[in-house]
Amino acid sequence: MAKVVIFGILDTAELAHFYLTHDSEHEVVAFTVNREYMNSTEFRGLPVVAFEDVETVFTPGEYHFFAPMTGRGMNKNRERVYLEAKAKGYPFISYISSKATHFGNEIGENCFILEDNTIQPFTTIGNNVVLWSGNHIGHHGRIDDHVFFTSHVVMSGHCHIGSYSFFGVNSTIRDYLNVAEGTLLGMASALYKDSEPWGVYIGNPPKKLPKPSYETY
Ligand SMILES: CC(C)(COP(=O)(O)OP(=O)(O)OC[C@H]1O[C@@H](n2cnc3c(N)ncnc32)[C@H](O)[C@@H]1OP(=O)(O)O)[C@@H](O)C(=O)NCCC(=O)NCCS
Questions:
Q1: Where does substrate bind (predicted)?
Q2: What is the per-residue burial (b if ≥16 Cβ within 10 Å, else e) of 41-67?
Q3: How far is ligand 1, taken at its centre, from the CA of residue 113, in Å?
Q4: Which of 187, 189, 213 to mutate to test the pocket of ligand 1 (most atoms within 8 A of CB)?
Q5: Which atom of ligand 1 is nearest to the CA of 166?
Q6: Ligand 1 atom 21: residue of nearest CA
Q7: What spacing in Å lies between the alpha carbon of 11 and ligand 1's midpoint?
Q8: Residues with beta carbon inside 6 Å of ligand 1?
Q9: Atom of ligand 1 nearest to the CA of 216
Q10: What is the mean pLDDT of each run of 10 residues along the chain (217 residues)?
Q11: 5, 107, 174, 182: which could join 198 in a potential S-S bond, CB 3.0 to 4.6 Å?
């Protein structure tokens, strides 16, 4: 059991508090955000402290950190907070729903894995990865760091998912694909071939948009 400080005071942080409280052994003790976003000193009945000096109030030796943020900015915002909290010396938790199906897969830190995800055997998941609800994560695959799966995505077997990639709702990835770093696959879109780094693909069959993903999402 860890005492946990959650980053954020918006929906995702509120959901993380709910899931950790109702479906984990951990105890949430506080929230933290950057000082400029602090509009209250309390959220969900717990203290909110400025991220700039959170380590002086909740010492990294005693407390764990959790930053389950959205995929906005192609996951770079979440990466920044994750790395800054790591530099402060915090250990991280990951949350894996008791309603997810998995088989002792290797899963990194600061991952947020919600209900109804199926992670098949021999697939590994890196650090700072979000699997929102209901994804199929096929066998013999690899998901690198800072990736975001929204909901009901099918990642077929033997796929490699590069860092920072983002998959819209109901999107589909063919088996044996190498999905390059920073790929954005739009909602209800399908990827048939390996993608290019920071490429945006929409539709089925997919069309590659001219703008790179970091200018799109
Ligand atoms: C790919 C995406 C990021 C593009 O967003 P955008 O830059 O705001 O694009 P727009 O909505 O302005 O659409 C641009 C054009 O592409 C089309 N388009 C957008 N997404 C599409 C998709 N997934 N499939 C097919 N066509 C799509 C639009 O119809 C529009 O066509 P038009 O120019 O002929 O009118 C967005 O559509 C998407 O899929 N986001 C993921 C949403 C999601 O899954 N959210 C889950 C909650 S986190």
A1: 73
A2: eebeeeebbbbeebbeebebeebbbbb
A3: 25
A4: 187
A5: 41
A6: 202
A7: 23
A8: 150, 168-169, 186-189, 200, 202-203, 216-217
A9: 7
A10: 97 98 98 96 97 98 96 97 98 98 98 98 98 98 98 98 98 98 98 98 98 96
A11: 182
C-alpha 139/C-alpha 124 separation (Å) is 9
24's tokens: 């984990």
Pocket test for ligand 1, best of 135, 202, 214 (most atoms within 8 A of CB): 202
Q: What is the pLDDT of residue 174?
A: 98
Is 182 annotated to bind a ligand? Reply is no
Spatial separation of the C-alpha atoms in residues 31 and 45, rounded to whole Å: 10
Cis status of the peptide bond prior to 47, with omega within 30 of 0: no
Rounded Cα distance, 92 and 10, in Å: 20
Q: Which two tokens stand for residue 42?
A: 């309390």
Structural domains for the chain: 3-87 (3.40.50.20), 94-206 (2.160.10.10)
Distances (CA, A) of 51 to 20, 153, 169: 20, 33, 31
CA dist 79 and 62 (Å) reads 23
Centre of ligand 1 to C-alpha 49, Å, is 37
Q: Tell me what pLDDT residue 132 has.
A: 98
